[in-house]
User: What shape does this take?
Amino acid sequence: MGIDNRLANTNFPLPAIREVNMAKHNTGISLGLGELKGFPVDDKIKKAMLQSWDNGAACYTQNAGLPELRSAIASKQKKVDGFDYSLLNVVVTIGVQNAVYSSVKTLARLGATRVLIPSIHFGIYKKIPAEFGLEVLCYPLKEDFGIDLKALSELIQKDDVLILNSPSNPTGRVYDSNEMEELAQVLRSQLTQGYVISDEIYGRLVYAGEQSISFSRYFERTIVVDGISKSGAVAGLRVGWIITRNNKLAAAITSNNATVISTPPTANQWAAMPVVNEETSGTIDTYNERLHENRDKVLQFLNRLKIPCNVPRGSFYIFPKMNGVVTGNIKDFCVNTAKTENGVVVIPGAAFGASDYIRISLASFQLDEGLKRLETALMNQ
Assistant: This one.
C-alpha cells in the first residue's frame, strides 16, 4: 500500500482537549483553557521584547539558545539546589512540549527502553515516548493524587525514564517537601542509571500552602523542563528550557533538538529574561490571588452539588470526579455541552487517562457564568 492509499485510509484524530475546544459554540464560555488567557502580561516582558530588536532579534542565536538567557536560567536553578550550573547545562526550547520531546528522543537514542508516567497525565507524556518505540507504563496514584511509592518501587527499573509533574496538569496537585524527599529516597536506590524528567512549568503558580520546589534539589539525575508560558501568561511566545547537571547530556539534547527547530526564536528569548530573573514576581502574585479566589468559587459550586474532588493548591485546574453525576459517557457529555448554544467547555478526564473526571480551568474571567451553564447542563441530562 502506497503513501496515498495509507493517507486516504488513515484517521488522524485530534487530542480530546482539542476536540472539545473545537466543538465550542460561538456563544459558549470556555472553562477548558490551558493558559492564562486575558490575564495582563507584565510590561517588563513587552519592553524586553521591543528592546530585543537592538540586540540582534532578527538573527539566529546558538542552537542551544541565547547565552544570556541560558546563563540566567543556570543562575536561577543554582539558587534552588546549589549545583554550580553554567549555560552549558541549559538548552532553550520552543515550549515545554519541545523540551519533553527532545529529552525523550535523546534518552531513547542513548538506550532507554521504558518511560514511566503518572496514571493521570498530560497526553504528550504517553504520545511522545510511543513515537520513539519506547514502552510506556503508568505508575499508580493514590486517591489524593499522590504517588503510590510502594507500587512505584515494585515497577521501576534502574535505567527507566520517569516523568514527574508537580504542580500537576490536570489535578492541581503539588507535592510537598516530605513527598519529594520520600520519592527521592526510592529513586536514589533504584533509578541508578535512568533519569527523571520533571515538568515544572506550573512551578510558580502555587496559591495555597507550601511553595513548589524543583525536584532537582532532591535527586541529581533530574532533567528539569520549564518555561514562561504559564507563569508569564505568554503561552504564545513558546519559550521553554531544559536544565540538567550533566552538560554532556545537554549537548546531546542540543544536537538532537537542532534538527527539529534549528534555534529558538530570538526576540521571544529576550522577552523571557524578566521572568527568569524574577522581575515579574509581583505580577505572578496577582495571578495566584485570582486563581485562589476562582478555586474557592469552584469548590463552593462542587460542594453544593455534592460533587467530590481533591482540593488543588497549584497550576490552574481542578479535577472533580463525575461518574455518578454525569449519567452517560463523560466525554460525550463534554462534547455536547461545548457545542450547545450558550454552553460551556470543560475537558473530559479521558484526555488525561482518567475517564471518571473532568478538568475545569480556573483561568477564566467568566467563571461565574460558566459554572451556571455547567449546572444547567448537568440538570438537563
The CA atoms of residues 89 and 250 lie 6 Å apart. The longest strand covers residues 222-227. The chain is about 40% helix and 10% strand. The chain has a mean pLDDT of 96.
